[in-house]
Design brief:
With about 525 residues, the protein is an alpha/beta fold. It contains 19 helices and 14 strands. It has helices spanning about 15-20, 30-45, 55-70, 85-95, 110-115, 120-135, 155-165, 180-195, 215-225, 245-255, 255-260, 270-280, 305-310, 340-350, 355-370, 375-385, 435-445, 490-510, 520-525, and strands at about 10-15, 45-50, 75-80, 100-105, 140-145, 170-175, 205-210, 230, 395-405, 410-415, 425-430, 450-460, 465-475, 480-485. The strands form three sheets. It has an eight-stranded parallel barrel, surrounded by eight helices. Strands 9-10-11 form a three-stranded antiparallel β-sheet, with helices on one face. Strands 12-13-14 form a three-stranded antiparallel β-sheet. Helix 7 links the parallel strand 5 and strand 6. Helix 2 runs antiparallel to helix 12, helix 9 (about 215-225) crosses helix 10 (about 245-255) and helix 17 packs parallel to helix 18 (about 490-510). The protein is globular, with a radius of gyration of 25 Å. The chain binds 3-methyl-2-oxobutanoic acid and zinc ion. Zinc ion binds next to loops.
Length: about 525
């Protein structure tokens, strides 16, 4: 009989694309999900929970597309305990050599009475039926009793025992509402280990939410009590206060290896680039003081600390920046830097660009280096993340003129280049420069939008730092996100809006979105 809990490797189950993506403002397009899945593969996670296929046709297609890439990690999809959901997961994940079906049902009294209106026995029956069906389709089946941390211990043990009997190979214990505390969670895991027959034959997993800021601490407590899989997300994104942060849990196990006597297979030098990718895609940037990947995580300001660091780094540094993928050298590029230096820096930052992408990014770098003296890593990342976002047209921004004055409306004139090379100029007035620029863009492209959110983030340091803008806009009742970057923040906002407008026009042309104006670029007056 195997004893999975006795192993000293912790499996990392990444749910950025499922629980993370479910969070407001974190939804991703198919191509963004594919980029994240590729980055998670480079990070060497064991399992990627790619989505919830029954949630929408888009979710199904995304999970299927990721599975068909057969990237290497086990590809998992989430299902409720019903045959339709389970079949959908199987259809979506089966393209990957290694795939998993994850079924869940809530077990706490609160959920039983108010959400499911089901008795204890009915819940066990439904879980057992679902696990059996999943096992007929797939050898790798995970079961989660949702809200486990608020479930009566005796009943939870009964549910888990039934799940193992039915064939679950991983049993995950979620703290769905982020309610537990480390000592309590430690006891819960020890109780299950003691009271559930054959529990040593399955992998015990932990899934924590961060409502009280303890998701990582609770996950580590579970690991101390025998869990050998941690479910987590990049940057800790997820519902409400988020999920257990992958980078924090992984670096805690690595940095305190002598305490845990455990390890993961994560390539920790990929943590920072993966964090940047996810924050650039979602527009959710971790706070500066966020552990591991925050901008200040390795900055030592206090004189006494700097003095200590100069004597010996270990005085105040428990991890080395390069261990998490932050570059050691703070090399700054400028307008005299050549292609070679640029390409080396891009590679050091963890990006793999082909010849075409390198050329395009290098041209953008040269344009930027003309505008600002020093080009930092953040600027280069921004160039790469935004490369191609507006270049796929139909419209390209040629110029933007803004006039603002305190107490007076702003005026703007945008000049766009259409696919046939002709130029279109429109002017508009608005309460502020962004409102005026968006109005002019709407006139030029024929796409009307409501700007719901405008987030500005500085890509690097200094007064001439590039502003990265993420906008959330509504077009015909649908919500879209766009990104743009420039040393001029109004231009960055304008580029972010134009990116969404271009995407909308391309989708209208393909008949994927309704819209009378299917080819605005050819219908506008030209100058
Ligand atoms: O938080 C939760 O309970 C979940 C389950 C579906 C695992 O996300
Ligand atoms: Zn969750």
């Amino acid at each position: 009989m195997s004893d999975a809990g006795a192993e000293n490797r912790i499996r990392i189950f990444d749910t950025t694309l499922r629980d993370g993506e479910q969070a407001p403002g974190c939804s991703m397009t198919l191509s963004e999900k594919l980029r994240v899945a590729k980055a998670l593969t480079e990070l060497n996670v064991d399992i990627i929970e790619a989505g919830f296929p029954a949630a929408s046709p888009g979710d199904f297609e995304a999970v299927k597309a990721i599975a068909e890439r057969n990237l290497g990690p086990t590809i998992c999809g989430l299902a409720r305990c019903n045959p339709e959901d389970i079949q959908k997961v199987h259809d979506a994940v089966k393209g990957a050599d290694n795939h998993r079906i994850h079924v869940f049902v809530a077990t706490s009294a609160i959920h039983r009475e108010h959400k499911l209106k089901m008795a204890k026995e009915e819940i066990i029956k439904s879980a057992v039926g679902a696990i059996r069906m999943a096992r007929e389709l797939c050898d790798d089946v995970e079961f989660s009793p949702e809200d486990a941390s608020r479930t009566e211990l005796g009943y939870l043990a009964e549910v888990v025992a039934a799940a193992i009997e039915a064939g679950a190979t991983t049993v995950n214990i979620p703290d769905t509402v982020g309610y537990t505390v480390p000592a309590e969670f430690d006891s819960l895991f020890r109780y299950l280990k003691q009271h559930v027959a054959r529990i040593d034959e399955v992998i015990l997993s932990v899934h924590c939410h961060n409502d009280l800021g303890m998701a990582v601490a609770n996950s580590l407590a579970a690991v101390g009590a025998g869990a050998r899989q941690i479910e987590c997300t990049i940057n800790g994104i997820g519902e409400r206060a988020g999920n257990c942060s992958l980078e924090e849990a992984v670096m805690a196990v690595k940095t305190r290896a002598e305490f845990f006597d455990l390890h993961t297979n994560i390539d920790t030098t990929r943590l920072y680039p993966t964090s940047r990718l996810v924050s650039n895609i979602t527009g959710m940037h971790p706070p500066r003081n966020k552990a591991i990947v925050g901008e200040n995580a390795f900055a030592h300001e206090a004189g006494i600390h700097q003095h200590g660091m100069l004597q010996h780094a270990s005085t105040y540094e428990i991890m080395r920046p390069e261990d998490v993928g932050l570059s050691k050298s703070n090399l700054v590029l400028g307008k005299h830097s050549g292609r070679h230096a640029f390409r080396d820096r891009v590679a050091e930052l963890g990006f793999e660009l082909d010849e075409f992408e390198t050329n395009r990014a290098f041209q953008e770098f040269k344009k930027l280096a003309d505008k600002k003296k020093d080009v930092y890593d953040g600027d280069i990342e921004s160039i790469i993340m935004n490369a191609g976002s507006t270049s796929s047209g139909p419209w390209t921004l040629k110029s933007l003129e803004i006039q603002t004055h305190t107490d007076q409306p702003a005026t703007s004139t945008v000049t766009l280049i259409g696919e046939d090379g002709s130029e279109t100029a429109e002017s508009a007035v608005g309460d502020g420069p962004i409102a005026a620029a968006v109005q002019a863009l709407e006139q030029a492209t024929g796409v009307n939008m409501v700007l719901r959110n405008f987030e500005l983030h500085s890509a690097s340091v200094g007064e001439d730092a590039q502003g990265e803008v993420t906008v959330t806009v509504e077009i015909d009742g649908n919500s879209f996100r766009g990104r743009g970057a420039s040393v001029d923040i109004v231009e960055a906002g304008c580029r972010a809006c134009l990116e969404v407008m271009n995407r909308t026009l391309r989708r209208r042309r393909r008949g994927e979105l309704p819209g009378a104006d299917t080819d605005a670029s050819s219908s506008r007056a030209t100058i």
